[in-house]
Amino acid sequence: MKPKQTMATEKAVEVLELEAKSILNLTHKIGEDFDQMVDEICNASGRVIISGIGKSGLIGRKIVATLSSTGTNAMFLHPVEAMHGDLGMVSPKDVFIAISNSGETGELNLLLPSIRDLGCIMIAFTGNPNSTMAGFCSLIIDTGVEKEACPLGLAPTCSTTAQLAMGDALAVVLIHKKQFRKSDFKRSHPGGALGKRLSFPVGEIMYTSRDIPRVPPEAPLPRAVAQMDKFRLGAVFVLDHQNALEGILTDGDIRHLIAMNPDTFTQLYTKEVMTENPCVITADAPLYQALNIMEKRQITILPVTDAARRVVGILHLHDILGKGAFTFSS
Q1: Of 148, 177, 207, 258, which is most buried with the most CB atoms under 10 A?
Q2: Cα 252 from chain centroid?
Q3: Rounded to two decimals, what is the model's pTM?
Q4: Mean pLDDT of 173-188
Q5: What is the pLDDT of residues 120-136, one digit of tens each?
């Protein structure tokens, strides 16, 4: 039997139904502009910059947070602060998304000519495709609603819900488009429950073999340094022709060598400088075991190998705990 509703619960249900309807109505508004927006973001070499004022600004911040944690580099730009210096953080390579239900927000529209002059792709999330804001943008994402849940029609309710839902739709589509994985999510969320995270197997967060800097033992030392610089992981693995690990060369090794023998740097081969038979770990080992090895050995990089000592991945301390979150015991 359905419980009897009070005036309060009836109104609450009415609001929820109205906001749910507002979201469902968006399904009829998604089209070519949405597809093109996804392509522009995937192809951009810069960030997604989102801007808005008031409630729309708060929604923009939440969309930025969702994008950032799911593999899309995003930043919120306050329109007023932008006009007082923060505009310098925007580059022509960025994709700019302006959020305003009316499309007539003065502070935001004042910023748009400057964004256009920079050459950014400009996108509008708005309930008014014929607005001033929409006129500045090449792509229009219609987030309009029939009415607000607020009985006075003053407080943004359904409109902000629609904006937020459209932002979530964008983020989820980008997850699929970029093939964002659970391991990527864990790498960008190092502040979770430490005990739970350390129980994960190494293979969950390691960089896979295609992301590993590697050289053969007979490689000239400058070639090894070039590989180290390219991948920026602080080390390069020395592998034989069967992909088996023979040694490891770290940036610390290079600094020590240059300090001690600066004139011989270009004359040496990698095998003459590398650390032979370094500590390794398997992909199915728990992260706490990797952390114990790193602490004991005072190292930040671990090769991940199979039973034949063939390298299958690389594990960095930062990917276990997050940058700056861990210091070795004395």
Answers
A1: 148
A2: 29
A3: 0.58
A4: 72
A5: 999 999 999 999 999 99
Q: pLDDT at position 160, please? A: 95
**Total residue count of the chain as it appears in this document:** 330
The pLDDT value recorded for residue 325 is 41
What's the mean pLDDT when you consider all of the chain? Answer: 87
CA distances from 82 to 49, 57, 109 (A): 11, 13, 12
